[in-house]
Specification:
Radius of gyration of chain B: 23 Å
Helix content of chain B: 40-55%
Radius of gyration of chain A: 19 Å
CATH class of the largest domain in chain B: Alpha Beta
Number of helices of chain B: 12
Structural class of chain A: mainly alpha
Largest sheet of chain B: 5 strands, parallel
CATH architecture of the largest domain in chain B: 3-Layer(aba) Sandwich
Strand order of the largest sheet of chain B: 2-1-3-4-5
Helix content of chain A: over 70%
Strand content of chain B: 15-25%
Order of helices and strands of chain A: HHHHEEHHHHHHH
Shape of chain A: globular
Number of domains of chain A: 1
Oligomer: heterodimer
Structural class of chain B: alpha/beta
Order of helices and strands of chain B: HEHEHEHEEHEHEHEHEHEHHHEEEE
Largest interface: A-B, 39 and 35 residues
Strand order of the largest sheet of chain A: 1-2
């Protein structure tokens, strides 16, 4: 196989993994912007997406197309309950306590998933076909196209929501200054709740579209969550395009690193990037240095 | 004065009671340490189930020369500290004459000093070769060493004239132990390792490694890991249209792997214990009778297919039974009798222990199998 085709293969693999990181990363950013906390239970929503779809298909014998929206709905409901039961009662707590609560929440959700569904790994059927598609010497699966398509669609929807709807604009207002937003009549608590629901929905959808390729189990959320967090950091915690670029960059670098240097360093690459960004450009790769809001 | 008398008589009574307990007519107490819960529960549960099933079966058939077996099982939850506590409890409180288990190599290594000191034979169900290498006086094992599986694959590759081989191993205990064996045995079989790549146990996309392997000179690919990694690799290989023959380890020799990998599993070959192919084994195979009995019994008792792990416990109980049949009832005598086991046809293989070999198996314990039509076939 020629080097150029090899390179193209690494790029394609990287972009499709990166798209997933981007979706998860945006979930992190939305909650961060609305509340100022990092929700470490984000990875568990990803897990819930895949596992719930599988559960609905097996237990209720639902077809795939019916199980997917229902699973997203249930995961969104989990996000809602999580905010209501774990975050809202402690609104006066410091961000660091809230972050720790989200870690606790993620352990709880993972533990419950393990008790209910067991420790086995499961596979979802691909949405359409399994025949590889050739592209200039490299190959990709129909599922990769689904991943890229759905990610692109979600990002566009996301952009539209935040820029052109009242709720979206209200959420942005909250992220700039919650007190001022409250003063002009925006229900800040409702916006926080909404941010958890949107994040849960996006995370679970990411978990569903990736499950046919990577399979799913009660503990897939940990690593995917961390990689998504990484993407969000590269993107400077914006819920827009820079997190998407952050995710894609991470996916491609991982894939190139594993293919051209050594696969042993794959995860190390992601976390070295994370540390470098946190040390050198904490505002993100594309962000301008920002003065601390007082 | 009165209290002293009371204490004294109570002590005497207890002494008497405990003495009478340990001389309870004709039962032989054996202990079981299995990780029925915790991460290695997939090992411990079938092991405990099987041990119970076999002991019940022996007792129902009248015991061994009139003596009943009593099995005392503790759950170690995959925790080495707990395994040591439970081993001590089995020896000091329950006065067992031999112990079966633990389920994992880590727990077994932790328990070894205890049984060596107390001189109680231990038959481990874990696979690590360091359990019996070097040989410890009271420690035996029933699970096959990784090296035997490697030898099986290499022998097969030699026959297929595939000398240039790529390795893709998982970066955990199972993978690194396999990788060591694969590297150290390669020279002996004239195998040249041209690529040596790894992947993380939680990795979800291995196309990068496979792309690199595709660009190499390799004539065959050996993947060493446990679910789900190898299933992802099988799918990735199919996506890339990788033409190399794909070999895997005995770590995926369960129906679960076929279910996960789906169509991508077709044509994959791997070394496996004989349980999964018991029905298609030739009649002349010396293990056939034992395998069929185990699979049938397990199905009847637990409505599930018996697996390799249960097989390790089956072998352990049966090896003990053999020792007791040959007249051994004390720990020391059982140890000596176990060491004299010759050609015992069990589930994991044909065991022949010796003073310098407490693992007892050869590479005949493994057969090469191929996945065809979502089922196991013997590879030609």
């Amino acid at each position: 196989m020629e080097f150029s085709a090899q390179l193209l293969q690494h790029l394609l693999s990287g972009v499709s993994t990166g798209a997933i990181y981007a979706l998860i990363g945006i979930g992190f950013s939305i909650i961060y912007n609305a509340t100022g906390i990092i929700n470490f239970a984000q990875g568990e929503f990803v897990m819930l997406g895949g596992m719930l779809t599988l559960f609905l298909m097996e237990a209720l014998q639902l077809p795939l197309w019916a199980a997917i929206p229902l699973a997203v709905l249930l995961a969104t409901l989990t996000g809602l309950l999580f905010e209501r039961l774990a975050i809202r009662p402690l609104r006066k707590a410091s961000p660091i306590s809230l972050v720790i609560i989200t870690i606790g929440g993620s352990i709880l959700i993972r533990g419950l998933a393990m008790l209910i569904w067991g420790k086995d790994t499961h596979s979802l059927p691909p949405f359409t076909g399994e025949e590889p598609i050739m592209l200039a010497g490299a190959t990709l699966l129909p599922q990769h196209l689904w991943i890229l398509g759905i990610t692109a669609l979600l990002i566009i929807l996301n952009k539209w929501f935040f820029n052109h709807t009242i709720s979206g604009k209200a959420m942005r207002a909250c992220s700039y200054n919650p007190r001022a937003a409250g003063l002009v009549g925006i229900d800040v608590r409702r916006m926080v709740l909404l941010s958890f629901m949107i994040s849960a929905a996006m995370g679970s959808l990411a978990g569903i579209i990736v499950a046919p390729l990577t399979m799913t189990a009660y503990d897939v959320g940990v690593m995917l969550g961390l990689k998504g967090f990484c993407a969000a950091i590269i993107g400077g915690m914006s819920s827009g395009l820079s997190t998407v670029i952050g995710g894609l960059l991470l996916g491609v670098l991982e894939s190139l690193g594993a293919g051209l240097i050594s696969s042993g360093y794959k995860d190390a690459i992601a976390f070295v990037i994370l540390l470098l960004i946190l040390f050198l450009r904490p505002q993100g790769l594309f962000g301008k240095p920002e003065s601390e809001r007082v | 004065m009165r209290t002293r008398l009371a204490v004294f008589s109570l002590a005497a009574l207890l002494l008497l009671l405990s003495a009478s307990l340990s001389f309870a007519a004709g039962t032989i107490k054996i202990g079981g340490l299995f990780s029925v819960t915790g991460p290695p529960a997939f090992l411990g549960e079938p092991e405990r189930n099987t041990a119970k099933m076999v002991v019940d079966g022996i007792n129902k058939a009248g015991g061994i020369k009139g003596q009943k077996l009593e099995l005392i099982v503790y759950d170690t939850a995959g925790d080495a500290t707990k395994a040591v506590q439970m081993a001590t409890k089995l020896i000091k409180d329950d006065h067992v004459v031999a112990i079966i288990g633990p389920s994992t190599t880590g727990e077994t290594m932790a328990v070894i000093p205890v049984v060596e000191k107390e001189k109680v034979p231990l038959i481990s169900c874990a696979a690590g070769s360091k359990i019996t290498d070097p040989t410890k006086r009271y420690v035996f094992k029933t699970a096959q060493n990784d090296g035997l599986a490697v030898a099986r694959i290499y022998e097969y590759l030699q026959k297929q004239r595939q000398q240039k081989v790529a390795l893709l191993t998982v970066s955990d205990g199972f993978g690194s132990s396999g990788r060591e064996q694969l590297k150290s045995l390669a020279g002996k079989y004239g195998i040249q390792l041209v690529v040596d790549e790894t992947y993380g146990p939680k990795d979800t996309d291995m196309t990068s490694q496979l792309t690199k392997i595709r660009a190499s000179q390799a004539q065959a690919l050996i993947v060493w890991g446990t679910n789900p990694g190898p299933a992802v690799i099988a799918k990735n290989a199919k996506q890339l249209g990788l033409k190399l023959p794909l070999y895997m380890s005995h770590g995926v020799s369960s129906k679960k792997f076929i279910a996960l990998a789906g169509d991508a599993a077709e044509g994959i070959k791997l070394p496996s214990g004989k349980v999964i192919v018991s029905d298609v084994l030739p009649k002349k195979d010396p293990q056939k009778a034992a395998l069929m009995a185990f699979v049938r019994d397990y199905q009847n008792h637990y409505k599930q297919e018996g697996d390799h792990f249960g097989g390790h416990a089956w072998d352990a109980v049966m090896l003990l039974k053999g020792a007791v049949e040959r007249g051994a009832t004390t720990s020391e005598a059982i140890r000596d009798a176990l060491e004299k086991t010759r050609n015992f046809h069990g589930i994991g293989g044909t065991f022949t222990y010796a003073a310098g070999d407490h693992a007892g198996l050869t590479k005949d314990a493994f057969v090469m199998v191929e996945i065809k039509n979502k089922d196991w076939m013997l590879a030609k």
